[in-house]
Amino acid sequence: MVRAPRSLKGLTIVNGSIEIGEQSGDQPTSAHDEMDTDTEEEQTGVRGKTTMAHIWAMGADSEKILIEVDEFGVPCTKNAATFASFLGVIAKNGVYVPLNIPTWRHDDFTPYKLKCLKLLEEKFEFPHTENTVDWILKNLNKRWRDWKGSLKATYYIPKGKQRVLSKPPKSVLEEQWPGLVRQWYDPRKEELAQINKINARKQNNAHTCGRKSFARIRNEM
Asked: What's 10's DSSP letter?
């Protein structure tokens, strides 16, 4: 028996359509209620904010951006960089990827994963295969965790929980801020954070190819 990837927990792919599996639950906020992407994105690089405004502006009559994938289901052409950048924008949008849900594998995340995939379907043409959907969700997961790490590095104050709670940043939905801060000050989470920090220092193979992924390089070679 072949098990589906953990990132697809609660989701099924039927005839090229991505659906919620056996779970039930209300759909999260609709797309037109999304956060203002011009104020939501905060990056500290010299390029400034990354909002992908031209992607958000694409309507139902716009031509979708074609995303080609390799034999592993990974985007491998120039458009892959645009696709990946938009995933990074979504990962920082609390309407699509909430900060107050503790882990990516939590059952409460299932309808939000579906919402992200439906948004991508409106703007990109990509294969709805298990490998590609798994890659998308893993990419979103990593970017969401990186975003949470960036927020903690900027706003966390040791033994200053109440002070941190009182000043939610504009880049975060205010109602999600308390849940995120509680995670930071949970003793179990703090212990896990220290373990993860030590493990991160052991990583020796850094990606040094800029926005060009290994999949694109392999495809070009």
From this structure: T
For β-strands 17-20 and 11-14, DSSP reports them as antiparallel
Q: Give me the long-range contacts of 37-46 (CB less than 8 A, separation at least 24).
A: 37/89, 37/93, 39/170, 39/171, 40/92, 40/93, 40/94, 40/171, 41/89, 41/92, 41/171, 42/92, 42/169, 42/171
Cα separation of the two ends of the chain: 35
pLDDT digits (tens, 9 = 90+) for 79-94: 999 999 999 999 999 9
Q: How many CB atoms lie within 10 A of CB 23?
A: 13
pLDDT tens profile 124-167: 999 999 999 999 999 999 999 999 999 999 999 999 999 999 99
Q: How far apart are CA 166 and CA 82, in angstroms?
A: 36
Q: In which element (H, E) is residue 216 found?
A: helix 214-220
> How many whole angstroms separate alpha carbon 67 and alpha carbon 32?
25
Residue type, 144: W
Phi/psi at 72 (nearest 5 deg)? -95, 0
Q: Which of 89, 119, 129, 121 is nearest to 8 (CA)?
A: 129
Amino acid at the residue 221: M
113 dihedral zone (left: phi>0; alpha: psi -120 to 50; beta): alpha
